[in-house]
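Need tokens for this chain, all 445 residues.
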Amino acid sequence: MSVESPVLFFFRAVFLGGCDGILKQALSCLCAAALLEGENAARAEQVRTRGMEATASSSEPGFGPAGAIDGDRFSSERTHAWQGAARATNWWWEARFDPPREIGAILQITGDHPFILRDAPRDYVWQWSNDNQDWHDLPTTQTTNEQRTFRLHRLERGKRVAGLRLRITGAQGPVPTLREVEFFSDPGEAVIFPDWIVAVNTTDRPGLPSHGQEFIPLARSCAGWEKLQAQQVWLGSFDEDFIRAEPRPLCAFLSGNFKDWCEVSREPWRGTQEVLRKKNLPLWASCGGAQGLAILAETGVDQAWDCPHCRDPLAPKTPIYTHIGHTGARPCGDYSACVFERGPQQVRQVTSDPVLQGLPAEFSAMESHCGQIEWPPQGWQLIATAGPGTKTKTQCLRLKDRYIYGAQFHIEMEGSPEVSRRLMGNFLTLSKQWGGWNPNGKMEK
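Here are the structure tokens for all 445 residues:
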């Protein structure tokens, strides 16, 4: 049995029926529906606040302060997040507690994009109050130029407060968005957070989203990883401070890139060099990202880099990096005479490695490059080489005592979906076994 909507009933009664009785019945129906809607809204608001009263300096329409404490951690949709008004130059968001509450840690999820930090607090500090009038900074939460979508602030010691305020003096974009905030009473409390990955854009263009975002849907296509969370960052923002901040990522993926290494600015690679030397986080790097890891391991960012076009054969700067071949002489940046490998190519396993588990001895993977890694850096081992008809000999490397991989092929590129999904699924499982960012991680024997 279908039920006619009150609005449709009203207009049909007035314009077709013209009867006072029907009109009264229609108006009664509309009033009842409005009352029911109001009761539902009030009930929903009560659920969202969960015993807290949320307020803010200003809000964009539909993005009220209660949206940041509705229990939905990751939605940035209307009613599920707070967003400060675009016309303002600074903002605040408050949670008031009755009775006062012990606070030891604050989890915040910010930004209005599914996987990049956009329209989010950039410069901010959390403040506390005993009367919701006089506010005092929590120094350990002071943040300038925030780069993290997910961040857990742990206080030096627990504090009983009547209210907490997020004071924002700068935003990434025209507005700050607070998707969710959660409060914990003990500074040392184990905060459960779902697995999440970092996708690093290693190109010379820092705009996001960008190259390397393809790792995210590939990871979510693997069985058991459908709800995996992610953040994409540019190379210059990726360093040990970024990955060791809580909640810590499961692993990171480095994209390919387009310029030869003599033309690449070395400084943005300094953070990745630090991550590689610390060896605390599982990494997977494709194509140019893999070449970058090899150069960092062999040469580092403090020495000049060259390419085969400009290289002095008697004094090479980065000899670990070469080209597949040339059909003529060209200047740096001109690849018209370079030999390329593109599309699906045959790759052959040379050692038993857990990331290759379930793949045949020879498998097809997608490639798009003219440069290559000439040999494994010290402390690395070759796990896959060229198969029949493939020119590139160094296909996949692994740091010997870590789940850190560099592959000349692209698992994130369309063309070999089953192989890519198998490699991705294996790598995510190994990263989970390692424990994500984990300085005490141990390899499976």
